[in-house]
Specification:
The protein is mostly helical. The protein contains six helices and four strands. The chain folds into two domains: 56 residues, no CATH class; 119 residues. A hairpin with a 2-residue loop joins strand 1 and strand 2. The mean pLDDT is 80.
Length: 182
């Protein structure tokens, strides 16, 4: 995931990272060293070769859209299954807390990756723009629920109603996303 300022707006993009080697690596390291002399200083204080990585914004073709849609559904199924497991055992107080916090971290990462991928969908089909816009707003709603969940994570009696709400919100969010992007 990378962020690029476009028309005054910082937009997230899904990206591919490729380590550069040889003359290409040397060229781009020199370009960066001219922009910021500190990079030249790094070379002077180490014996190792400083890696240079090229980041390429992912663009979608119809085949890649289909693959991403299938991947999206798999991620959603994994998150649904994890939430079901999380809620299944009312007696496992410590496990509930630990699993809940791990689930919330996984969900945050999932949404962060999606926010970048949405930019690729928008570039592929500008008519889709309202869909990622709605989904990004829902990501913020889910993030608020996650904050409410992580606060009482040590109290399963307070945690369960928040998990119920999260499950309802996520199911509506996943269904919309799958219907429009997956």
């Amino acid at each position: 995931m990378i962020a690029i300022r476009e028309d005054g707006v910082l937009r997230r993009h899904a990206a591919r990272a490729v380590p550069l080697e040889g003359a290409e690596r040397d060229h781009f390291h020199e370009v960066q060293a001219r922009r910021d002399p500190a990079f030249r200083g790094y070379v002077e204080v180490t014996t190792r070769v400083i890696p240079v990585v090229a980041l390429t914004v992912l663009r979608l073709d119809p085949e890649r859209v289909a693959v991403l849609g299938a991947q999206l559904r798999r991620h959603h199924e994994d998150l649904r299954a994890e939430l079901r497991r999380l809620r299944a055992d009312p007696t496992a107080r410590r496990d509930l807390r630990d699993h809940c916090l791990a689930f919330c971290d996984n969900l945050r990462m999932h949404h962060m990756r999606e926010d970048g991928a949405f930019t690729a969908f928008e570039g592929h089909d500008p008519a889709l723009a309202p869909v990622p816009a709605k989904l990004r707003k829902e990501h913020h709603v889910v993030a608020d629920v996650i904050e409410r969940i992580t606060a009482p994570a040590d109290d399963p009696d307070r945690l369960r109603p928040e998990l119920d709400r999260l499950e309802q919100d996520l199911e509506a969010h996943f269904a919309y996303e799958e219907a429009h992007l997956g």
